[in-house]
């Protein structure tokens, strides 16, 4: 598989991890910031087979939808009329929270970011049709990222912030769907290899109770952690994404044991370096 891939957003969690993974897989991968992409965009863009956008901006996340803040649509418009395939990162937050959410299920975005992503999805699909791959991503488990420009905090970022302060919230009844950054990279690689397009839920597809996940992430912490009741504003939604469409397409191993092992590695990295 010889592919020339451009990743927009090389400093963020998804962009930087994909770049490293693709290099290991011997793909020809290039990277630019979104600002550099806009400045350097010209006829040479046709040398790429795939463009992956891993960027967003604070106005798109926080405010009501405006085309000028939609990085995905801006990129998509640049490649109309080319053979370039576009990979767009979306979010599970566009769905109504429930167990076993399918790609075709009811959409009920409850924040500006999710509402904007759904609008963006529809706009990009309309102009690129079968040249776009949209990934609706569940919660990413990754090593803590101290990037000051970071727009999103992952579950791990929040957990380790609280762990440093000596407490975490009780989550006995709450479950969510997670996927490790390592598995995410593999999934994107396999979808590209299969020349896939369309919409896919990217997830483990299993209930992971938050207290169980916390046990894994806290495994190497030798300090006492206090469990406290969450605030009234605490995010207590439970959900899982149905990933059968994804797994039938790429047929890879994706199970709870792998997620647990990744959590233990992250725990060891964080607490043993202290």
Describe this entry's structure for a reader.
- Strands 2-1-3-4-5-10 form a 6-stranded parallel β-sheet, sandwiched between helices. The chain has a two-stranded parallel sheet with strand order 6-9. A two-stranded parallel ribbon has the order 7-12.
- Helices cover 38% and strands 18% of the residues.
- With 274 residues, it is of the alpha/beta class.
- Helix 1 packs across helix 7 (181-193) and helix 4 packs parallel to helix 5 (112-128).
- It has 10 helices and 12 strands.
- It is globular, with a radius of gyration of 19 Å.
List keywords for this structure.
single chain; 274 residues; alpha/beta; six-stranded parallel sheet; two-stranded parallel ribbon; 38% helix
What is the CA–CA distance across the termini? Answer: 42 Å
The DSSP helix count reads 10
Q: Strand order of the main beta sheet, please?
A: 2-1-3-4-5-10
How many strand segments? 12
State the oligomer. Answer: single chain
What summary fits the major beta sheet? 6 strands, parallel
Helix content percent band: 25-40%
- Average pLDDT value? 91
Strand % is 15-25%
Order of helices and strands: EHEHEHHEHEEHEEEHEEHEHH
């Amino acid at each position: 598989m010889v592919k020339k891939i451009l990743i927009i957003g090389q400093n963020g969690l998804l962009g930087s991890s994909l770049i490293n993974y693709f290099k290991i897989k011997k793909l020809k991968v290039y990277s630019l910031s979104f600002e550099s992409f806009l400045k350097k965009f010209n006829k040479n863009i046709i040398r790429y087979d795939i463009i992956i956008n891993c960027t967003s901006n604070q106005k798109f996340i926080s405010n009501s939808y405006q085309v000028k803040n939609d990085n995905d649509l801006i990129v998509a418009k640049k490649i109309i009329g080319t053979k370039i395939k576009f990979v767009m990162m979306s979010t599970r937050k566009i769905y109504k929270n429930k167990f076993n959410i399918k790609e075709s299920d009811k959409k009920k975005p409850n924040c500006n970011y999710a509402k904007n992503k759904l609008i963006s999805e529809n706009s990009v699909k309309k102009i690129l049709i079968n040249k776009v791959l949209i990934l609706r991503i569940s919660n990413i488990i990754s090593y803590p990222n101290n990037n000051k420009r970071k727009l999103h905090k992952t579950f791990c970022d929040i957990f380790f912030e609280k762990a440093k302060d000596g407490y975490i919230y009780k989550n006995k009844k709450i479950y969510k769907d997670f996927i490790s950054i390592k598995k995410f990279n593999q999934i994107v690689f396999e979808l590209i290899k299969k020349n896939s397009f369309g919409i896919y839920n990217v997830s483990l597809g299993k209930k992971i109770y938050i207290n169980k996940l916390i046990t894994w992430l806290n495994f190497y912490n030798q300090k006492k952690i206090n469990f406290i009741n969450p605030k009234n504003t605490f995010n207590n939604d439970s959900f899982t994404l149905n990933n059968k469409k994804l797994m039938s397409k790429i047929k890879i191993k994706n199970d709870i044991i792998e997620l647990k092992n990744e959590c233990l590695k992250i725990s060891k990295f964080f607490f043993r370096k202290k």
